Automatic annotation (TrEMBL):
SUPFAM superfamilies per UniProt: L domain-like (SSF52058)
UniProt source species: Bos mutus grunniens (Wild yak)
InterPro entries in UniProt: Leu-rich_rpt, Leu-rich_rpt_typical-subtyp, LRR_dom_sf, LRR_domain-containing, LRR_R13L4/SHOC2-like
Keywords: Leucine-rich repeat, Repeat
Keyword Protein biosynthesis annotated: no
Pfam families membership: LRR_14
Membrane-crossing segments per the record: none
Entry GO terms, CC: cytoplasm
Stretches assigned to coiled coil: none
Domain Disease resistance R13L4/SHOC-2-like LRR: start-end pairs: 98-184
Listed name of the protein: Leucine rich repeat containing 40
Gene3D superfamilies per record: Ribonuclease Inhibitor (3.80.10.10)
Length: 191
């Protein structure tokens, strides 16, 4: 009986919370909640040096509101969340993206312009639904070969980077309608 005294004041669900507490400092819970409903998340201009783990895991982890409202009659039906399809993390200080990007396979729009990215993760190949990729105004020197796997890509924005070549197989991106990269001032692009 004495062993149970210490447990009485604790939240028994605490061990099941998967969202990190430090995430709320840079991404308000209300913003994540709205993103789960709309499928869109805009984190532009938040001075981020890295993408918080809760963003990558938004469709994987059980949301915080699930711990507060366990009623099936609730108007907030967290279990009916929408997959994230649009992620905007432009105008930040990102230098890299992790392979956790693969946790957002439903993305159709990824806008990461105006950061300090020097490369893209190979996990980008898993974003098979991606239709628009904006990586303009970064410090990219090369594009990963995996970018050629994005067969649904319609818009690719590469201007104002430090690109010197385009990966082999680039011509396989048959759906590409809007390519803004070749107009690089004083840059030689090897095709």
């Amino acid at each position: 009986m004495s062993r149970l005294k210490g447990i009485a004041g604790r939240d028994t669900r605490a061990g099941f919370r998967t969202e990190s507490r430090d995430c709320s400092a840079c991404v308000p819970q209300g913003l994540l909640k709205a993103a789960r409903k709309s499928g869109q998340l805009n984190l532009s201009g938040r001075n981020l040096s890295e993408v918080p783990q809760c963003v990558w895991r938004i469709n994987v982890d059980i949301p915080e509101e699930a711990n507060q409202n366990l009623s099936f009659n609730a108007s907030e039906r967290w279990w009916e969340q929408t997959d994230l399809t649009k992620l905007i993390i432009s105008n930040n200080k990102l230098q890299s993206l992790t392979d956790d990007l693969r946790l957002l396979p439903a993305l159709t729009v990824l806008d990461i312009h105006d950061n300090q990215l020097t490369s893209l993760p190979s996990a980008i190949r898993e974003l098979e639904n991606l239709q628009k990729l904006n990586v303009s105004h970064n410090k990219l020197k090369i594009l990963p070969e995996e970018i050629t796997n994005l067969r649904n890509l319609k818009g690719l924005y590469l201007q104002h980077n430090e690109l010197t070549c385009i990966p082999e197989g680039f011509e396989q991106l048959n759906n590409l309608e809007d390519l803004k990269c070749i107009l690089l001032i004083n840059k030689f692009i090897q095709l």
